[in-house]
Design a protein that fits this description.
mainly beta, ten-stranded mixed beta sheet, 12% helix, nine-stranded mixed beta sheet, 19 strands
């Protein structure tokens, strides 16, 4: 005899808004390093990162830390620089650390560097912040806050250089109607290790153009987080990186659309070249790009797009590209994402070689053109020239 099945209704317990880890935008954050567990290789946020090469910046085993050398070059008027206590109300407003490395940097920071752009000020030259590592085999920590008051306009360059291991938190607080163009350059010596959390807070009708470039260092891991506070915000994040054998670059970004009628655009491009003939420890070039865009139910009228392109120049190169788009409302202007990882385009190579250009020269032309799409968007000619020179220098040492 067959026993009849008894059907029962499913019990559904709705998850309240803001529940921890409900979305990428609701991930846990804290200023206290003890609130975070030590990262493991199987953790989603760390699964690409070579933890054994971080020199203890993530697990508390780092050498005793110190303050990195920070120099600030300001225009004659409209901007000021000061050193603040971490407990100052102007520090920590844009967001708290979202991982243990950033919380460890916060816990070990005694002084925050604060750059303030006055209301309605339009700066006649860039603000340049130079962070120099503590030295070979040494560790440093830092906190940097860049604030633009209402309707201010500024260009801010943040340059990292020198040796050592460095971990920091950066805040960009952009007031209503303000316009910020910022360039972050990883220009470390070859032994540099840098872990960075950054929070970009975009006010009503504010505009942010954030450019990121990674060429130097052994490891550079950047975790930017964009958050809007009122309608009309416009954020654009563009980046380029060129990884050689023994280098690892990671960008793990989040654009959190929780406000209606805001815009974002993300474009990162990277090239990688390994040296298979070298020893196992230093032969591979590795990059990881994780792009998260969240459109919450209340973020109607959102317009967003993200793209990451990677060009593998040689053997011994690996790029992981993971675009994620989470949409919780259909009332948007547009949303999309794309990612590519590949070698030289056969049609482009054929076209140039058929016109007498040697294969090696053709490949270099393709690499230059590959990066041009990002470099040409940077409004500062001096920065464009600097990045073009860095690409040329990489190509001079290429193993193509």
């Amino acid at each position: 005899m067959t026993t009849p099945l008894t059907e029962t209704e499913a019990t559904i317990n709705p998850v309240k808004a803001g529940t921890e880890h409900q979305t990428k935008g609701d991930r846990f954050s804290s200023f206290d390093v003890n609130d975070f567990s030590v990262p493991r290789g199987k953790d989603e946020d760390w699964r690409f990162t070579p933890l054994r090469r971080l020199r203890g910046l993530h697990d508390g085993t780092a050498a005793e830390g110190q303050r990195a050398q920070v120099s600030v070059d300001l225009p004659d008027s409209g901007a000021t620089y000061s050193e603040l206590e971490p407990t100052d109300e102007r520090v920590g407003r844009a967001g708290a650390p979202v991982d243990r490395a950033a919380a460890q940097a916060w816990t070990n920071t005694n002084v925050a560097d604060y750059v303030h752009i006055e209301k309605d000020a339009v700066l006649d030259k860039p603000v340049t912040v130079t962070v120099t590592g503590a030295g070979e085999d040494k560790v440093s920590y830092g906190t940097l806050v860049i604030e633009l008051d209402t309707h201010a306009e500024a260009v801010v360059i943040v340059r990292y250089e020198g040796s050592g291991a460095h971990s920091d938190n950066i805040e960009f607080v952009v007031g209503d109607g303000a316009k910020l163009t910022t360039v972050v350059m990883e220009d470390w010596a070859r032994d540099g290790v840098h872990l960075s959390n950054s929070h970009i807070q975009v006010g009503r009708d504010a505009t942010v153009r954030h450019y990121y470039a990674a060429f130097g260092g052994e490891i550079a891991r950047s975790v930017p987080h964009v958050r809007y506070t009122a309608p009309g915000g416009d954020a654009e994040l563009l980046g380029l990186y060129f990884a050689d054998a023994g280098q690892y670059f990671e960008q793990r970004l989040l654009v959190d659309h929780s406000i209606k009628n805001c815009r974002s655009n993300v474009l990162y491009k990277g090239a990688l070249q390994g040296e298979p003939s070298k020893g196992h420890e230093s032969r591979d070039a590795r990059t990881a790009w994780i792009g998260d865009v969240l459109i919450r139910p209340e973020a109607t009228g959102t317009d967003t797009y993200e793209k990451n392109n990677n060009l593998l120049l040689t053997e011994g190169a690996r790029a992981d590209s993971v675009p994620n788009l989470e949409i919780q409302t259909g009332e948007i202007v547009g949303a999309g994402h794309a990612a590519t990882v590949g070698r030289f385009d056969d049609e482009q190579m054929f076209y140039m070689q058929s016109r007498g250009i040697p294969a090696a020269a053709a490949k270099m032309l393709i690499v230059r053109g590959f990066f041009t799409d990002v470099i040409k968007r940077i409004p500062l000619e001096s920065i464009r020239e600097t990045l073009e020179e860095k690409v040329e220098r990489e190509l001079e040492n290429t193993v193509l």
